[in-house]
Design a protein that fits this description.
The protein contains twelve helices and ten strands. The protein is an alpha+beta fold. The chain has two domains: 100 residues, no CATH class; 128 residues, Nucleotidyltransferase, domain 5 (2-Layer Sandwich), CATH 3.30.420. Helix 3 packs across helix 11, helix 4 packs across helix 5 and helix 9 crosses helix 10. The longest helix is centred in the last third of the chain and has 18 residues. The two termini are 40 Å apart. The chain binds zinc ion. Zinc ion binds next to loops.
């Protein structure tokens, strides 16, 4: 792994396309290139250094290190991709597509696409369940009230055009978030069971949607309706950790991106969770962690498709 402590170091380390490619090869393949089409390790490298060929009879595909990754099929040099990936994984709040466009010297549309593709890399692909004392809560995020016509503002059961996000945070541990259509027993139960081990202590507020799934856990409730915020038992019963996280997430999303459509919100949530969950890593370690997740794709067509 390369080491760097600042953006200046970073740019020195990745000062050419070759350096970027070498690093990507190391992160992705760990010294053993694999065919992205059939998975075979029986591959050879062409003398130009950039292109590989699969030796399997049925395959014979040619590929470079970016094939099958988020960086595939793009005219943007890897150096710019890397810089954007660095900023998103390291900068504490992320970056708007307008700002990124200025930094990289690309159009805002390109920067927007880049931003979203990098967010795919910031998704936790091997998630372990939360354990111990886990606080759960839900909140509304996104939307911009002032731009919406009066009739659209009043969504039944919701708050304007904002979108519901459910979250769980392990005390002194990781956070997980999920965009859900509404707070009902089914959605909440499914999210909790997908996030938390059964022998955890789950702390929630007094929302009734937590009661049913709460029977499967050691469930503690803090009674916000009675203005109770912390109660001392064998543990401190409160949801201050997840509420603190909501503040961070809202500052990042509402403060930087202003208006985020519900369709893209999960990706913004993943970006923020990645930074939070890797907060103890150094810059170079965070960047490496993002790059090991580079397999995948997100086409512009998929991004802009109406759902
Ligand atoms: Zn192959």
């Amino acid at each position: 792994m390369k080491t760097f402590k600042s953006i200046l170091d970073f740019q020195k380390e990745f000062s050419s396309e070759e350096k970027c490619r070498e690093y990507l090869e190391a992160q992705r393949w760990n010294g053993t290139p694999a065919c992205p089409f059939c998975g075979s390790l029986n591959v050879c490298r062409f003398s130009n250094g950039r292109i590989f060929k699969c030796r399997e009879k049925q395959c014979r595909s040619k590929f470079s290190v970016t094939v099958g990754t988020i960086y595939e099929n793009t005219k943007i040099p890897l150096q710019k991709w890397f810089l954007a990936t660095y900023i998103l994984s390291v900068h504490s709040k992320g970056i708007s597509s307008l700002q990124l466009a200025n930094w990289l010297g690309v159009t805002q549309k390109t920067a927007w696409h880049l931003n979203h593709r990098i967010r795919v890399m910031l998704t936790d692909n091997a998630p372990e369940l939360l354990d111990g004392i886990v606080e759960v809560d839900e909140t509304y995020i996104g939307g911009s009230e002032s731009n919406k016509h009066e009739s659209k503002r009043k969504v039944k059961g919701g708050v304007g055009n904002k979108t519901m996000v459910f979250g769980a945070v392990q005390r002194q541990g990781k956070v997980k978030t999920k965009v859900i259509p509404q707070t009902n027993i089914e959605n909440i139960s499914e999210a909790i069971e997908g996030f938390i081990t059964p022998d955890s202590t789950m702390v929630s507020d007094d929302h009734h949607a937590y009661n049913k799934v709460g029977q499967k856990y050691n469930h503690k409730k803090v009674n916000h309706r009675n203005k109770e915020y912390v109660r001392k038992e064998d543990i401190l019963v409160h949801t201050n950790t997840i509420e603190g996280y909501w503040n961070i997430l809202k500052k990042q999303i509402d403060g930087i991106h202003h208006s985020v459509s519900p369709k893209h919100l999960q990706r913004y949530c993943n970006e923020s969770a990645f930074r939070h969950n890797n907060r103890e890593l150094l810059q170079d370690e965070r960047f490496a962690a993002a790059l090991t997740n580079c397999n995948g794709s997100l086409k512009y067509k998929e991004l802009t498709a109406k759902i």
